[in-house]
Write a structure and sequence with these properties.
The protein is α+β, with helices and mostly antiparallel strands and 75 residues long. Helix content is 23%, strand content 27%. It has one domain. The mean pLDDT is 91.
């Protein structure tokens, strides 16, 4: 699952991803629920991500994408 942010992160990253395989299904479903809720309520989301590209999920390019390890919604 990939998320494209409207605002670019300080290091130039604007895509964030989490694996959606069976091992990470619970986490990716929680993230998707939070992101859809924030979108519906027009709320900001803060994305916490790995800064190193060596842990990027499949399909997450080193130039513009990083792995998500946490999300919070600004309410």
């Amino acid at each position: 699952m990939h998320v494209r942010c409207y605002n670019v992160a300080p290091d130039g990253v604007f895509y964030f991803a989490v694996p959606s395989d069976s091992t990470n299904a619970l986490m990716s479903n929680r993230y998707l629920t939070l992101l859809n809720t924030a979108f519906a309520l027009n709320q900001e989301v803060y994305i916490y991500y790995e800064t190193t590209t060596s842990v990027n999920p499949p399909g997450c390019l080193a130039a513009d994408c990083r792995k998500i390890y946490g999300l919070t919604m600004d309410k």
